[in-house]
Amino acid sequence: MKYLAMKKTNYQLRLFLLACVAVLHAAASLTAHAEAPDDARALIEKVVIAMGTAQHLHELKDVEYVYIYRDGEDGKMDVSVERYMFDGEVSWGEYVLREKHVLPETKGRVAQGYNGSETWMTVDGASVTDAQGLKMADFLRKTNYYWFAMMFKLLDPGIHYSYEGTRLVEGTQYALVKMTFDQGVGDVSDTYLLYINPDTYLVDRFLFTVMDFGMTDPLLMEVSYEEVDGLKLPTYRRFTPADWQGQVKGGAWTEEISINVRFNNGISRAMFDSPKEID
Q1: How far apart (Å, rounded) are the C-alpha atoms in residues 41 and 60?
Q2: Rounded distance, CA 233 to CA 225, Å?
Q3: Which of 28, 40, 101, 232 is the most buried (most CB within 10 A)?
Q4: CA neighbours within 13 Å on the CB side: how many for 16?
Q5: pLDDT, position 185
């Protein structure tokens, strides 16, 4: 009787273990399906929904905020009042502090604008014609807009996605989606590797190149969000040199901070056009 009882117990244990294996196998199959390469776009769609949708962003028409750029190496800052209209992706900025990238040796009130086809810059209303200064102005007008609106633009035409597996970072198993662009989408064709949080579907971090300045080695951007008018906004970002495995290279972190974000300000499109030079 004791032998039969032990045999029965062993049989029940085997059934239990087999059931556990089946459950684990089914869960693994579901996970593999959910994270299959064909579902890279589906993950991106969830990101845009989690952000509050591109449609809602456009319904808010325009935005104004204060943008603080603090360099990680020397602590120098550029601080600007930024204004954008989402229809046409036009961009304007006026600098209240210029220590790093925007004519740091020049006195006067500096404004920049991009009207969808042309970038301009003025000092006390007088047009700047210096090619290097205008190149930086063009980069900043387009880049500042893109960083603000990037997560809402992930489904724009001309973008390609590929699922790159998962990566564990500080206890979170992120889904990785590589993002590349068709030629002619943007001024240059950068590469992004997005880390998508499996619980929130927000992009907590991403790797990216800056081909506009010949940077093929990636930077790692970490992002924190704030909710404003039903949208998740990347109001705190910081970046540093890294490799494609997401390992930082020991460089200092540069910070990008957005404060006092206000939508639907009734901004006129005319302000994005180059003003007439003061006599």
Answers
A1: 26
A2: 5
A3: 40
A4: 6
A5: 63
Work out whether the CA dihedral 112, 72, 164, 30 comes out positive or negative. Answer: negative
Q: How far apart are CA 278 and CA 108, in angstroms?
A: 13
Burial string for 54-93 (b: 16+ CB within 10 Å, else e) reads beebeebebbbbebebbbeeeeeebbbebbbbbeeebbbb
Neighbouring C-beta atoms of residue 96, cutoff 10 Å: 11
Per-residue tokens: 253: 């972190």
Rounded Cα gap, residues 76 and 54, in angstroms = 33
Alpha helices in 70-191 (DSSP H): 131-149
H helices present in the chain, as ranges: 2-34, 40-51, 54-59, 131-149
Residues 75-112: tens digit of each pLDDT: 999 999 999 999 999 999 999 999 999 999 999 999 99
Please name which of 252, 188, 245, 241 lies closest in space to residue 218, comparing C-alpha atoms. Answer: 241
Place of tokens 């603080």: 68
Integer angstrom CA distances of residue 115 from 16, 86, 92, 101, 191 = 67, 11, 8, 21, 26
Higher pLDDT residue, 14 or 120?
A: 120
Domains in the chain, CATH or no CATH each: 46-272 (2.50.20.10)
Question: Which single residue is written with the structure tokens 């990636």?
Answer: 218
Q: Return the percentage of the chain with pLDDT > 70, whole number.
A: 83
Tell me phi and psi for residue 179, to 5 degrees.
-130, 125
Task: Give the mean pLDDT of 138-142.
Answer: 95
Q: What is the dihedral of CA 153, 159, 162, 168, to 10 degrees?
A: -30
Q: What is d(CA 204, CA 42) in angstroms, rounded to the nearest whole number?
A: 18
Q: What is the pLDDT of residues 16-34, one digit of tens each?
A: 433 443 433 443 333 333 4
